[in-house]
Write the structure tokens for this entry.
Amino acid sequence: MKFLSSLFLLASLIYSVSAHTTMSYPLPRSHIFNPNTPFKDYTCLTSPLNGGVGCLPKPFPCGGYPVDTKFSTILIAGQKFNVTFYNPAAPNPDSSTDQARHNGGLCEFALSYNGGITWTKIATYHKTCPDVLFGWTVKIPENAPTCDTLGQCLFSWSWINAAGNLEFYQNCADVKIIGKSITPLPEIDITKANLPEFEDAFFPEGDPSNTGNAKGSGPLAKDITENLKPFSTKPEPEYAPETTKCVKDKKSPYYIVYNNGKKTTLKCKGTKVCHQRHNNIVCKK
Ligand SMILES: *[C@@H]1O[C@H](CO)[C@@H](O)[C@H](O)[C@H]1NC(C)=O
Ligand SMILES: [Cu+2]
């Protein structure tokens, strides 16, 4: 599915349920404010990739939205900026606005240099994200290389909600990156859960100090500090020397997981079989 058909018959319903937010800086693909998108999604950009009332499920990554006709945002290696969110159901929000925050959850910000095949996570916010009433500080790694091929260079916001249905939200922005280094960034995958393709189901820690709808307490100071640390000196993600591996036994594919050096053999559920996705296993038919 390339373009997302909105079921206009349900438009009046949609308005009442899609009180979720979208990323608004950097402007994502198909955002109503994006001057460079070939398709503005007025109703379902706010919905999770799982779909919702009046909104069809959308594919990972990025919901399958079309690439912008030119870059909407230029980012520079080392640049610090605040990611912002926008709620189309409440363009002028205050602290009583329903943002359908589902008690917050886990927000991750990531870059891709290959159109979303692989990711480098560059910032994480726990518990209180997203919230349109705050900025969410991110730093482009100082050692990020240049990326200027339209369709390949992405800035992603993904959100796994803390309460409600198990859902995965993602908006992606086409961003030109001006860098210095020529060394690719290490792959640091985003957390993929709550989609049929990714069998992990999980509710991250949330922000129970509010109803999940009203204003929250904003980004955690320790997350901001962590996100602004020099990227180049952050430890590389630890991959076990023997990584998770899908074994394509013709009769019955299985996969091997190493947990603290202990080897476990597992199979995908039902008729699904394992596929290798970098260091992860994806179970698919
Ligand atoms: C970025 O967001 C933080 C946290 O909400 C806020 O304290 C700060 O003033 C914002 N910075 C800018 C430049 O808007
Ligand atoms: Cu919701």
